[in-house]
């Protein structure tokens, strides 16, 4: 059983790292990089008139998507390594290796259950096969697992190439504790709130920075949006 104080300390450290990366991302984000991936026709169709509205919409969408990846790398993966007692797996596409006298568990840690398409799932299976081939000489049962840190997933079919465990099932696999998935959220306590003032400051500065640049680049002298210039930037040849 993992000591609660040690676990809480680790969770706090990982949240510190998450917010550090999150703030760095928003501070270094560039307006034109985000505009290239947004739909100017949609903004026009829904009647957007204010530069600040466009800026806040693209920031929210970008940060929401970015947060998922950052949180997986900064929180879920290192927490899974910490609580499993495993070591870094010697293979691309596999994050944790847990060895017993008879079994070698190879675990790829993912955030949610919607990360795979057909091609990426095939590549994950290939990564597991490559590692299994390298480990033949140790003569242990090879148990490949994709672990999703949250969500629900049906158990694998009999002919599946790896097990898929999500949410409660994944964390119980690592710790033996069926309630561990609840302990994670419980032990976050008020640590996130401590980071919010610094994050809000970075957010507000990004909104101001983006709004100023958007007005300079994509608005007429009277302040109205130059939709054709914005669309040429987004979708034109150059």
Rg for CA atoms: 22 Å
Which regions have little confidence, pLDDT < 50, spanning 5+ residues?
Answer: none
Q: What is the rounded distance between the termini?
A: 59 Å
- Number of beta-strand segments: 5
Global morphology: elongated
Mean pLDDT value = 92
Percentage of β-strand residues: 5-15%
| Main sheet: strand order | 1-2-3-4-5
Describe what you observe in this structure:
The chain has nine helices and five strands. The chain is α/β, with parallel strands linked by helices. α1 runs antiparallel to α4 (51-84) and α1 packs parallel to α8. The longest helix has 34 residues, at 51-84. The chain starts with a helix and ends with a helix.
Descriptive labels:
single chain; 238 residues; alpha/beta; five-stranded mixed β-sheet; 58% helix; elongated
Write the layout of secondary structure elements.
Blueprint (H helix, E strand, L loop, with lengths): L3 H25 L2 H5 L4 H6 L5 H34 L2 E2 L7 E4 L3 E8 L7 H17 L6 E8 L14 E4 L1 H8 L4 H7 L4 H28 L8 H9 L3
Parallel strand pairs: 3-4, 4-5
Antiparallel strand pairs: 1-2, 2-3
Helix pairs in contact: 1-4, 1-8, 4-8
Give a nutshell description of this structure:
The protein has 238 residues and is of the alpha/beta class. The protein has helices spanning 4-28, 31-35, 40-45, 51-84, 118-134, 168-175, 180-186, 191-218, 227-235; strands spanning 87-88, 96-99, 103-110, 141-148, 163-166.
């Amino acid at each position: 059983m993992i000591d609660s104080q040690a676990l809480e300390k680790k969770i706090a450290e990982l949240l510190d790292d998450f917010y550090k990366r999150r703030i760095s991302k928003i501070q270094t984000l560039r307006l034109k990089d985000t505009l290239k991936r947004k739909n100017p026709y949609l903004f026009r169709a829904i009647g957007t008139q204010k530069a600040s509205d466009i800026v806040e919409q693209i920031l929210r969408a970008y940060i929401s998507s970015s947060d998922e990846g950052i949180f997986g790398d900064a929180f879920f993966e290192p927490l899974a390594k910490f609580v499993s007692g495993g070591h870094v797996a010697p293979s691309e596409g596999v994050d944790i290796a847990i060895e017993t006298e008879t079994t070698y568990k190879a675990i790829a840690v993912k955030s949610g259950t919607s990360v795979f398409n057909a091609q990426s799932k095939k590549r994950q299976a290939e990564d597991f096969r490559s590692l299994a081939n390298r480990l033949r000489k140790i003569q242990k049962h090879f148990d490949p697992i994709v672990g999703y840190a949250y969500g629900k997933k049906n158990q694998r079919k009999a002919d599946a190439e790896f097990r898929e465990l999500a949410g409660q099932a994944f964390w119980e696999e690592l710790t033996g504790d069926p309630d561990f998935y609840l302990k994670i959220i419980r032990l976050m306590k008020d640590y996130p709130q401590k980071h919010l003032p610094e994050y809000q400051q970075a957010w507000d500065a990004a909104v101001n920075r983006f709004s100023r640049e958007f007005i300079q680049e994509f608005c007429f002298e009277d302040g109205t949006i130059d939709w054709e210039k914005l669309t040429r930037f987004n979708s034109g040849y150059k």
